[in-house]
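Data availability (excerpt). The following record was deposited with the supplementary files.
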Amino acid sequence: MPKAITRSTIGHHDKIDLPEMNLVEIDAKVDTGADTSAIHCHHIEIVKRKDKKMLHFILLDPTHPNFNNRSFYFDQYKQRSIKNSFGNTEKRYIIKTPVVVFGKVLLTEFSLSYRGNLTYPILLGKKFLYRNFVVDVAKSNLSFRKKKKKS
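Predicted structure:
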């Protein structure tokens, strides 16, 4: 008999940690309509560093309370066509980075996108949710509350 998959319930938004980017308790919206998760960045460019092409970006923007003006460089990245919320296709860079939610570390694929005009700097899409979570839109901050309860 196959082993049953245990899924945590996640609400329509939560606070997550991105340990490799020194971001803790950052607001994230759960979006079952999006395939790929997205993260708010600005100043996204390909640069040459140590004779290697690298993706350079700065997370968030100066108006965001968690902004730390830290540059990130990824040598492992892709570029893919992504449909935005208006149904238009745009080329975006894709990275993978760990996300901590409900005490679990999940390697997650993010498209880099300018989300400065949106409430949530991070969007968690279906690829992140699949096999890990059941969404209850009537709830929010379930992982964050569990984390605070433990500490």
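Summary of structural features: Residues 11-150 form a domain with the Cathepsin D, subunit A; domain 1 fold (CATH 2.40.70.10).
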